[in-house]
Specification:
By secondary structure, the protein is of the alpha+beta class. The protein is built from four helices and nine strands, in the order E-H-H-E-E-E-E-E-E-E-E-H-H.
Amino acid sequence: MSKHFAFDPKLDFAIERFIDAPTRLVWEALTKPEHLKEWYMPRAWGRVSRAEMDVRPGGILSIDIATGDGQESPNLGCFLDVIPMKRLVWTSMLFPGYRPAVFDDIPITAIMTMEPVGTGTRYVFTALHRNEADLENNKASGFYQGTEIAVDQFVEHVIAMK
């Protein structure tokens, strides 16, 4: 876990994987829209129809999700911290340029860390929530399950990039 935040199992969840690929490929798959479209949404649930990323603090993270019934849902956030090949942090609580967000969804801050381990990479996705109710609601909504599926798809995609 990063030392830049305190992980609280009552408020947060983390998913950790070892990826048998160099950190530069993990970073590339995480930060380029053409790669993100391949793994971000669980395939059985829908797809990414559009992605825009300006990977810098204050930059935009915009991902539109298309579900099987044809509905599209925009998701907008702001990058908070960017340390290439080490850490990427974004939140749905802010719009690009650190503008306060207005939304009717459960906000999160997502922290993705990576570190080289041998010839591979240790990758950790952490989702921070405001309170226990938000975490429980996110788990009940399928967000946690979907994130696990997306992380597995992410690992498969990175390995295919080798």
